[in-house]
Amino acid sequence: MVSERGLQVLRAIVQDYVDTREPVGSKAIVERHAFGVSAATIRNDMALLEDEELIAAPHTSSGRVPTDKGYRVFVDHLAEIRPLSPAQRTAISQFLEGSNDLDDVLVRTVRALTQLTGQVAIVQYPSFAKANISHIELVALDGPRVIVIVVTDTGRVSQRLAVLPDDLDETEIARLRAEVSTLLVGKTVREGVARVEERATSPAETTRHERAVAAVLRVVEEELDEFRQDRLVMAGTANLARREADFRGSIYPLLEAIEEQVTLLRLMGEMVADDNGLAASIGRENEAFGLSEASVVASDYDATGARARVGLMGPTRMDYPSNLASVRAVARYLTRLLSDDESNR
Amino acid sequence: MVSERGLQVLRAIVQDYVDTREPVGSKAIVERHAFGVSAATIRNDMALLEDEELIAAPHTSSGRVPTDKGYRVFVDHLAEIRPLSPAQRTAISQFLEGSNDLDDVLVRTVRALTQLTGQVAIVQYPSFAKANISHIELVALDGPRVIVIVVTDTGRVSQRLAVLPDDLDETEIARLRAEVSTLLVGKTVREGVARVEERATSPAETTRHERAVAAVLRVVEEELDEFRQDRLVMAGTANLARREADFRGSIYPLLEAIEEQVTLLRLMGEMVADDNGLAASIGRENEAFGLSEASVVASDYDATGARARVGLMGPTRMDYPSNLASVRAVARYLTRLLSDDESNR
DNA sequence: ATTGGCACTCACCGTGGATGAGTGCCAACA
DNA sequence: TGTTGGCACTCATCCACGGTGAGTGCCAAT
């Protein structure tokens, strides 16, 4: 079994390796860390750590490198998440100040986070499946074209164009708006989708009015669908190129995941947070998502009841304590901004 | 001076180099292309091409590689743009079929183009500076919050949240809507911005109504600004990782440009198109944008009078004829979709 | 449990020779 | 004048080789 000092050795190895990018040997450890024992003793500890597969040697006689499992133990038991420096805190608030609507806040958030960590920053839109539909508006354009606007009480707005089967005048449009509103306003997004689908299976579209309602509902359904599959905002993609050396293979899978979004959404969604709302998914733990060489660090945040995540993606060899601290701090800012200060939305 | 055959040699060098990624020597040329002369003769031609700086040798005794200037001559005088194959054409139409609004069409377009070329595809939104504001709508939410929607006749819709200084009732909102509409509807985006700024410098905001108008106009101005600085839609970013070997340095500047957008917008805007609306900007010609190792190929397209560009970005060592053909074909589809078939928007 | 000692492994580095692709030049030729 | 074969030369690439040093594993002594 690994001793207490053994764990400290693991900690030292992780820290030094993240620092220097080079396999760390027993001698280097006794030099850089005051263990008060000789290199031979450290070697014995390292042999045990290797038995437990927490560290590994790239080649027979070289220093050791943390395994994914080693990083996991480090993150779970050894990492101290130190609070951000005042300078970093003011940096965050400077990024976020003066933002109005949700979109804006989220964009600024990822910018702040990528600035802070030098990694790819990611934020989930608050889940809208449980949000309530608070408004539906129709704006008549020329001819049969109508803009359909859907608003939820979490502050998300969506707009999309519908082409009606017939030209309608103002009173007909008003009737349309009233009917669609009574059908959906006050419902959650999830219920809304159900209502629309139910309605779609009802008898044939005979009258002008019925045809118009059907056309509008089709568009509304698309919009609600978009709400359900919460989206991502990202920044700092270019950082991947800078950190390229940390990826054995290519950064292709990461860029692909960034473009796909769906993969990242699922990954972020499935991560299990600890008591502080913090979560990390390390290296091969992401194998199912094609991201075996990447780590994702995330934190929950609250937005008017809806819960979502903000985090970052980078190489397995990343500075977990500092990144966890940054993510946590940003998540707290976000929660404060989106929940407490209602008027700010 | 470079002879006619000399130019054909240049063509062969470009083609083979793009093909094999390796410097091409005189012997390889006589083997792969039926010039009917010996390698020594080709060597003489190559010496001339080198004098003209159209090709260069990576090291003293190795095959030659086209210079940026060489690619330029190739594109301008030697490249034959062959029409796409039927299979490629059907691929495009399959990508584009069933799309509704502008956003959708553009997203599908870049997907088609990236699929076709394996490069990063880029499309500019049609320029909205000259577009007319056709609608302004206010949607009252709870309390003082109002959604401000601006629509242009080119089909672009923007919505944004405004927080008014006071709570207003329905009639006041209606008055607000009427006032803002008379001020702006029918104007071009450019004129609209001017109107708003002019109005902003007028006397103090005394009444509730005046304060509200000012608040709404501030938001409208932001939206109009967004219209003016036409945006981009992109796809295929991950392809950069696949083609990484073609970039001597790193792909960092490219990823950065993709994230910035502004750089790419300026670049695409400044390119000079030929009679067919096609344009290419090669390697060092992009130095001012920090993209000396990339080439951009683009084509104009029309959308209800507004003109914009669709194109792609990739390594200097790219297949120009095929990429030019793809861009041209996609641009034609786009023009047809956005201009002719009005009802489709 | 810790330590110093020691043999051993192996990546890394610089050297050197062989290989071969490709050039530049020249004299001969049509 | 343009074309050609011949030939010497250059230089990247490959591989084999030995030396160096960081680092390990093991063991006997403390």
TrEMBL record, chains A, B:
<dbReference type="InterPro" id="IPR021153">
    <property type="entry name" value="HrcA_C"/>
</dbReference>
<dbReference type="Pfam" id="PF01628">
    <property type="entry name" value="HrcA"/>
</dbReference>
<dbReference type="InterPro" id="IPR029016">
    <property type="entry name" value="GAF-like_dom_sf"/>
</dbReference>
<comment type="function">
    <text>Negative regulator of class I heat shock genes (grpE-dnaK-dnaJ and groELS operons). Prevents heat-shock induction of these operons.</text>
</comment>
<protein>
    <recommendedName>
        <fullName>Heat-inducible transcription repressor HrcA</fullName>
    </recommendedName>
</protein>
<dbReference type="InterPro" id="IPR023120">
    <property type="entry name" value="WHTH_transcript_rep_HrcA_IDD"/>
</dbReference>
<keyword id="KW-0346">Stress response</keyword>
<dbReference type="InterPro" id="IPR036390">
    <property type="entry name" value="WH_DNA-bd_sf"/>
</dbReference>
<dbReference type="InterPro" id="IPR002571">
    <property type="entry name" value="HrcA"/>
</dbReference>
<dbReference type="InterPro" id="IPR036388">
    <property type="entry name" value="WH-like_DNA-bd_sf"/>
</dbReference>
<keyword id="KW-0805">Transcription regulation</keyword>
<keyword id="KW-0678">Repressor</keyword>
<comment type="similarity">
    <text>Belongs to the HrcA family.</text>
</comment>
<keyword id="KW-0804">Transcription</keyword>
<feature type="domain" description="Heat-inducible transcription repressor HrcA C-terminal">
    <location>
        <begin position="103"/>
        <end position="321"/>
    </location>
</feature>
